[in-house]
């Protein structure tokens, strides 16, 4: 064990390189959050409306969430390098095929299904790698890695916008597809899990108290799983609905012009990225349950601010949506950390894949409900009453259910 090297360094130092490498992979995959940049050019090119231009993005999120739990079962069997490489190739092909699409139906298939499958396959691997290399700092490490997905629009949206202006939308898909394939393939060759019994030097003397006991994969038989699943669904429902209506709310309720509304989204993306390491750290220090409750309190504050916001209330809008985006980013760290903390970390890839189905449900309904409220009531304001109620439900669920099951606790005591 003493001879183990990571990038030619001692494991305690070399393992830190897996965080920026994983972050870059997720930065490429997170380009999906820059979809708004593609919508207007596609609406013009295909002569379609706003609802149709959103379809490829919606389908991608659903396929992404479906594939995550499936591929989690193959990481240990085929290795993190192979799974990441396959996911990167499929993602790249999805973008490349999208460059040849001549109608929205084809784009739903190439971008929504093919690229979505690639994102779903590759997404969980960098998180699994960093989680195993950092059993002593799992929340912080996972949070720092997954920040790449949240901050991706800050990097990829301007690049995509420049490429579209220079080469048009079809060629932009082609360029991005080739670039993502090359980048992810190169990084996949460097990924590896630590030796089975390896632990950081600082934690060698500690007992398995930092790691829950393996109880033979009975996650689905615990109330902790259902509590986490409900909490994650609520967090993603609120966050993704907020992302979808940020600009329209600014224009329709606060009466900001389109350019200013678009600029605020860049600010919100920063908070979305910061939420991941922040809540990863909170989950490590104060337990996932308390981090979840803090997250919901912020959502409740944001909802109250927006429930009474009107024309000219720019400060309320900025504070509220910074909190919404921060909270969504937080759940992308709380959920994997809770999965590591509450259940067998050796089955993390499989377990988190199952937990991640909550993201798919939250994404599907979160992108639909706010729009339906706007269509029925003529305003988005009532949507914030819904998010406030959900935040309260989340606090209750987290308090009573988001804790290690009695079965696991008793087995740990016996060990």
Strand-helix topology:
Blueprint: H1 11-14, H2 18-29, H3 35-46, H4 50-71, H5 75-78, H6 80-98, H7 104-133, H8 138-188, H9 223-252, H10 258-307, H11 314-342, H12 348-355, H13 357-377, H14 381-401, H15 406-414
Helix pairs in contact: 2-7, 2-8, 3-4, 3-8, 4-7, 4-12, 4-13, 6-7, 6-8, 7-8, 7-12, 8-10, 8-11, 9-10, 9-11, 9-13, 9-14, 10-11, 10-14, 11-12
Report on this model:
With 415 residues, this protein is mainly α. The chain has 2 domains: 11-199, Growth Hormone, Chain: A (Up-down Bundle), CATH 1.20.1250.20; 218-415, MFS general substrate transporter like domains (Growth Hormone, Chain: A). Helices cover 78% and strands 0% of the residues. It contains 15 helices and no strands. It has helices spanning 11-14, 18-29, 35-46, 50-71, 75-78, 80-98, 104-133, 138-188, 223-252, 258-307, 314-342, 348-355, 357-377, 381-401, 406-414. It is globular. 55% of the residues are buried.
């Amino acid at each position: 064990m003493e001879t183990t090297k990571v990038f030619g360094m001692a494991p305690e130092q070399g393992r830190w390189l897996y965080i920026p490498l994983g972050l870059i992979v997720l930065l490429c995959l997170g380009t999906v959050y820059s979809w708004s940049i593609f919508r207007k050019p596609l609406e013009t090119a295909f002569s379609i409306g706003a609802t149709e231009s959103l379809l490829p993005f919606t389908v991608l999120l659903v396929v992404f969430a479906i594939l995550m739990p499936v591929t989690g079962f193959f990481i240990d069997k085929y290795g993190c390098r192979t799974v990441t490489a396959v996911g990167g190739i499929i993602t790249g092909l999805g973008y490349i095929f999208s460059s040849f699409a001549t109608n929205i139906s084809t784009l739903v298939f190439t971008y929504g299904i093919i690229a979505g499958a690639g994102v779903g396959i590759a997404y969980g691997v960098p998180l699994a790698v960093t989680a195993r290399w950092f059993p002593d700092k799992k929340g912080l490490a996972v949070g720092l890695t997954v920040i790449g997905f949240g901050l991706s629009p800050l990097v990829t949206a301007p690049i995509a916008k420049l490429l579209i202006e220079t080469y048009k939308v079809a060629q932009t898909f082609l360029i991005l597809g080739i670039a993502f394939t090359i980048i992810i393939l190169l990084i996949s060759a460097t990924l590896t899990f630590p030796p089975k019994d390896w632990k950081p030097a600082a934690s060698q003397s500690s007992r398995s108290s930092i790691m829950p006991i393996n109880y033979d994969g009975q996650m689905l038989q615990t109330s902790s799983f259902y509590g986490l699943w409900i909490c994650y669904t609520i967090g993603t429902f609120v966050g993704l609905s907020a992302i979808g209506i940020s600009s329209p709310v600014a224009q329709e309720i606060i009466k900001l012009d389109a350019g200013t509304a678009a600029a605020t989204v860049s600010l919100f993306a920063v908070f979305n990225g910061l939420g991941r390491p922040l809540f990863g750290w909170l989950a490590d220090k104060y337990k996932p349950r308390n981090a979840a409750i803090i997250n919901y309190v912020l959502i409740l504050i944001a909802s109250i601010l927006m429930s009474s916001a009107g024309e000219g209330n720019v400060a309320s809008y900025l504070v509220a949506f910074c909190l919404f985006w921060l909270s969504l980013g937080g759940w992308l760290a709380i959920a994997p950390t809770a999965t590591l903390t509450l259940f067998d970390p050796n089955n993390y890839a499989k377990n988190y894949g199952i937990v991640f189905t909550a993201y798919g449900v939250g994404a599907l309904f979160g992108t639909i409900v706010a729009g339906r409220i706007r269509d029925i009531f003529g305003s988005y304001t009532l949507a914030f009453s819904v998010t406030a109620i959900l935040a309260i439900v989340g606090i209750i669920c987290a308090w009573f259910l988001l804790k290690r099951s009695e079965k696991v606790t008793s087995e740990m005591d016996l060990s």
